[in-house]
């Protein structure tokens, strides 16, 4: 599980870099609504990634101990996404729904890119 935690921390670092770019975009451009929406979606995406990581860690421990595991928290992550969409729809003067959804997808995009980078890096070491 140590490798799994390292992967989570690496992905979190990438997302925080993106979040800092979004914050700079919000502060220094005229696209306040767009960047604020990305920030909202990304912050919730970080929480969803953390929740998924924690649930998968518990699943791994349960498998090792031969115990049952109920879920990996899909419903709670869907509820968080619905909350982000509800906030965006409730306050259209501050948020737009499309960038919020893009922000919600940030962690999944980072996971895919991190996987590809690690695969490329590991293939280079074996050559």
Describe the structure.
The protein has 127 residues and is mainly alpha-helical. It has one domain (2-119). Helices cover 83% and strands 0% of the residues. It has helices spanning 2-28, 32-64, 74-90, 97-104, 106-126. Helix 1 crosses helix 5 and helix 2 (32-64) runs antiparallel to helix 3 (74-90). The longest helix has 33 residues, at 32-64. It is flat and about 50 Å long. The two termini are 27 Å apart. It is found in: Cell membrane. The chain crosses the membrane at residues 12-28, 34-52, 72-89, 95-117. This is ATP synthase protein I. It is a multi-pass membrane protein. Keywords: Cell membrane, Membrane, Transmembrane, Transmembrane helix.
Question: What's a concise summary of this model?
Answer:
With 127 residues, the chain is mostly helical. The chain has helices at residues 2-28, 32-64, 74-90, 97-104, 106-126. It is flat, with a radius of gyration of 17 Å.
The biggest sheet amounts to: none
The number of helical elements comes to: 5
Low-confidence segments, given as residue ranges, are none
Helix/strand-derived class? mainly alpha
| Mean pLDDT reading | 91
Shape: flat
Q: Strand tally, please?
A: 0
Order of helices and strands: HHHHH
Rg, nearest Å: 17 Å
Task: State the end-to-end CA separation.
Answer: 27 Å
Strand content: under 5%
Q: What is the helix fraction of residues, given as a range?
A: over 70%
Number of domains: 1
Transmembrane segments: 12-28, 34-52, 72-89, 95-117
Protein name: ATP synthase protein I
Organism: Parageobacillus caldoxylosilyticus NBRC 107762
Keywords: Cell membrane, Membrane, Transmembrane, Transmembrane helix
């Amino acid at each position: 599980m140590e490798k799994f935690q390292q992967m989570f921390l690496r992905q979190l670092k990438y997302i925080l870099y993106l979040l800092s770019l979004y914050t700079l975009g919000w502060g220094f451009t005229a696209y306040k609504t767009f960047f604020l929406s990305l920030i909202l979606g990304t912050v919730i995406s970080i929480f969803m990634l953390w929740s998924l990581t924690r649930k998968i860690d518990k699943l791994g421990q349960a498998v090792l101990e031969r115990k049952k595991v109920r879920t990996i928290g899909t419903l709670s992550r869907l509820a968080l996404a619905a909350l982000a969409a509800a906030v965006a729809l409730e306050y259209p003067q501050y948020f737009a729904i499309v960038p919020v959804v893009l922000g919600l997808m940030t962690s999944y995009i980072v996971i895919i890119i991190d996987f590809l980078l690690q695969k490329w890096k590991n293939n280079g070491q074996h050559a």
